[in-house]
Structures are given as structure tokens and as C-alpha cells.
Write the C-alpha cells for this entry.
Amino acid sequence: MADIINLLPDNIANQIAAGEVIQRPASAVKELLENAVDAGATEIQLIIRDAGKELVQVIDNGSGMSGTDARMCFERHATSKIRSIDDLFQIRTMGFRGEALASIAAVAQVELKSKRQDDELGTFIEIDNSVIRRQEPCQAPVGTSIAMKNLFFNVPARRNFLKSNAAEMRHIVDEFIRVALAFPHLQFSLNSNGQQMFHFEKGSLKQRIVSILGQHYNSKLVTVKESTDYMNIHGFVGKPETAKKTRGDQFFFVNNRFIKSSYLNHAVMNAFAETIPSDSYPLYVLFIDLDPAHVDINVHPTKQEIKFDDERILYAFVQSAIKHALAQFSVTPALDFDLDPGIQQLDALTQPFTEEKKAQSAGTSIYKTFTSANQAHVIDKTANSNLQHWKELYGPAPARDNDFPLPPPSDFPAAPTSTASVIDERWQEAAHDQKGPVQVHQQYILSQIKSGFILVDQRSAHERILYERYLRALAEKPIATQQSLFPQTLELLPADAIIVHEMLPDLQALGYDLEPFGQHTFVVRGTPADIQSGNEQASIEGLLEQFKHFSTELKHNRRERLVRSMARNNAIPSGKPLTSREMQNIIDELFACSMPNVSPGGRGTFISFKLNDLEKMFDRGF
Ligand code: ADP
Ligand code: MG
């Protein structure tokens, strides 16, 4: 019998290998952006056509390449970032395998232009199917431009596997956002089909987060920052009230590399546990830095999982850093008018802060750990005693320990089932009361009940009411549409148009009558009956605002997102004067809700003040 083993020709071997690195246009986006960052660029442009199927181009003002390097960089295992196996454990660059450009060149047509600062002329190279077609000197600005055209032109089977433009574009935006978040001190822009979708100026992490996730986060971010000899964490978490029913705005970076870790996510969720409803997800953008020697980054580049030496330490560290951050934010209530009402009524705040109490809280373990000059942070992996200390940090606190001043306030039980009876009772009381409600500062509604009074936040309460109404509309009975006398056209950014297209059926059920009209344009023929006419455009744009950040889970949760966005948009704002009748309606409808105690975003909707407690407060002279 003849021998049967063949060696594959280079270009086929390359194509197969490329399949692991370049799965879709977004993979190229990630690799090219990371190369630009590695090259020390400060301004990076991403240009996309046809969701990357036709073109993915990255232009940077980084180091540039020599003529030889420009040719070399397309070879497999060509990298300037490591020289020996030992370097692998000290990686600080994003790339190091020397695979990306080789892979891209194997499955697309590539044009490269690059020039170094001190070179007179730059280099132009054209390559496709791993074969260099042209190389010549050229005029070029300092830096590098790499254009990947017609991805998978030579592997039609893989081209057919690409998803719709909307789906591929969403992956691209995800990758873009991750890199932009990791490097806020660099300028990034994204242009798709000739339209600018994003432009981020250089700035602080906070500015970057706000420009990506929305201006409304500006006053809603809590700083997280802890340093130890073993690792550091910095970044932001959203205040509990910004938690959403959908995942999405959750970002972990280890040594500036975006990772997905359900384990670390769990640590964050745990730290938030008692401050938000159990089915909501807090925003976080967290950067963990540790010695590369403790991380195994030799996992595959396209995998976002990562292995750590000791995950438990990391878990404890992340959890306690966030608890600490949350505790600090809630401990300075007097200065913070934005404070969640759920927190304001905690014992810690409603009771006088005596010297005795001060001493007590200064003695708690978390307080000590984070204030005693970093001593407690030193984690020597060989010293078990320190590990025990960490356990103590994240183990359950003793009952009377006031470590973490955000227990579930007794009036805000977390589980909806357990609230029902309490709420019912309270509502019975309210209903039987004669006195009408009173508006306070055009923001709260004060309503007397038998055992005291409740203070309702008009906005949060109305948001809850609308949220449940809209959910019902999607599940059972669509909301009536009010046809507009003068249909308006609504011109949207391409990315926004994608979203609206996907949501059309749900929007219909919620009372919007929209009709696609050209690529990025819609005609608004009608709006939900309860929206004032004339506000059509603002109302849809407001909705979209919530969708500006894409996530891979967006699809599953888009209804939920839609409903929450609508509720938020259409809720009665603070500052609006209300008639007695309107106030009574809000109270009636609120207590008819299935979960009246929190807004969809996890904000409290009302606080109750009991006569007994008021008595006690007066007795204490508070
Ligand atoms: P890696 O990033 O893993 O080293 P790549 O295939 O992504 O591998 O890139 C190969 C090499 O090409 C890099 O190590 C770098 O020297 C060079 N290179 C790639 N992109 C750029 C760029 N935008 N500017 C300067 N040099 C670059
Ligand atoms: Mg690279």
C-alpha cells in the first residue's frame, strides 16, 4: 500500500491556522487595534465598510515599520514583542504571538502603508492569499495604516458563515469599545460606511466611560481603588441605583486585556448583593493589574478566559475592594443628594453618630484592612496566615458587625414574594386614610398612613408603574397607537438604525408605528397614546440612548432593555408639579404593582416612616 500522508501547501496551512485567529471581521478589528496600541500610537482610527466584510482599516500614528519589518510582519511567528520563552512571562504588550497579521494576510487582501519618524519615505505593501503582490516606497505620514479588504474572499465557505451586517457590526463595536475603555488616554474613532459612529478624545477613565455609556453615569460612578504588593485594582462601579435588569455594561480587564470571568463577575455581584435586587446587574469597569508571572496568558488569543495562580485570592480581593468602595460612598451621605433612599433610612444614618459608634466602626476588619497603611494587603503566597486574613474579609460577617453598612433595609425586602403581604398591609392602611397626599419639593409625595407616613419618589414610582404596564403590553395586550397627523421622518446613525430595525415588532406592541424608509431613516406614523404628540422624535432618541452600548447579550435582553428605557424616558420627572389626583393615582398604581418597592433600576420608590421610630428619634434628640 502506498503512503498516504501529504504535507499541506503553505497557503492552505496558513488558511487553516488563520481560522483560529480571524473568525470574523471583529477579530481583525481587535488585532489591528491592539497592534496600534502596542506600537505606541496616541491616535487610532478604525474605518469599517459593510460591517467589515468589505473593509476593516486601522490607521495609527505609532512607531511605524521599516521596509523589511513591513514585509516580515506578515510571516507567521513574526513578532517584535518576544525573543525567548522567558519573555513570555513578562508580557506587557497586547500581542506577542506574531500570528495576527499572517492570519489576516492568509484570508483577505491587505494593503499596508507605514513610515517611521526618521525615515524619508514609507513603505507600501499589497498582499493577498499570503502572497506579496507589490512593495514600493511611498509618501506616508508617521505611523501605520493596515487595510484588510474582502475578508475570506479566498475561503467562500467561511465567508458564507458570516452573520448579518447588524450582528457583525455589533461584534465590531464590542471589540472597539473594549479597547477604547482599556486605553482612555488614547484617542479613538470609528467610522462606518462613511459615517462617524464614535469619537473619543483622550481623557480619564471616567470621561471615557461616560462618553461610551452615557452622560447620565457622570454622577453615578463609584471609584474602586486598592493596591497591594500582589495586585492592584482600579476602576468604577455604578451606584446601586444604576443596576440594570440586563447584563452588558460589565467589563473586566486583567493587565489591560479584556476578559470574561464568571468567577470574578460573581465576586462583584456578591459585593453588591444586598444593595440591588437579585436579578439586576451593576455596571462595572474594573482593571486588575498583577505581575504577568501570576497569570497564564498563554491561552488562546481569541479566548477571553484567563488562568490565575490563585483564583480565590483574586475573588476575595475583588469582592472586598468593591464592598469597601460602596461602603465609602454610602458613608458620606450628607454631601450626596443623589443618595439612594434605601440607604438614607438605614440605622447607620438615621441614628446619631456617637463617639462610641465611631470607635466601633473603626475597629471592624474591613476598615482596618484598608486603612492600616497597606500592611494587610501584602499577600505572600507562601504565608498562610495572610490567606486566612483574606478569608476573614470575605467570610460572613458576625451578626452585630456593622462592617458593611448596606444591609437590606427591612422595609425593602429583596424578594418580591415576601414583599407582597407587607405592601398589601401598608396599602390597606393608606387606602383607608382620609388625608390627601402632599407634594414635597415637586419631587416626593408625602402620604399619611395609619402607622406613620410614606414618602414616595415620584419619578422612581412612576418608572415602576410604566415598566410593569409596558411588560404587560408585550406579554398580553399591545398599547394603543395614536396616529400622528403629520408623520415625521427620523434619520438615525447607522448603528441606531440597526437597533430600531431589530426592535420594530416590540416597538409596535408598545404603541409605536414606525416604517423603514431608506437605509437609516424611518417614518414615525404613530406613537403610544400616552405620549404627547410632537415628542415622537425625542422619545425615540431617548430610547436609543439606552441602547448605545452594544453587548453580545443584547439580543436576548433587548425587550427588557426596551421596556426599561421606555419606562425611564416616559416617567414623570422630578420637578414636575402634580395635582392631588395625579398623586393619588401614582400611589394607587404603585401599590398595585407586583414589585412596588423598587424602580426597575433598583432605586427605592418610597420610604416609610413609622410613628414608633419617629418617637424614638425625638427622644434621642435627633
Ligand atoms: P504580534 O502583535 O503578536 O507581535 P502581529 O502579527 O499582530 O503579531 O504583528 C507582527 C509584528 O508586526 C508586531 O510584532 C510588530 O512588530 C509589527 N506591527 C504590527 N502592527 C503594527 C503597527 N500598527 N505599527 C507598528 N508595528 C506593527
Ligand atoms: Mg498583534
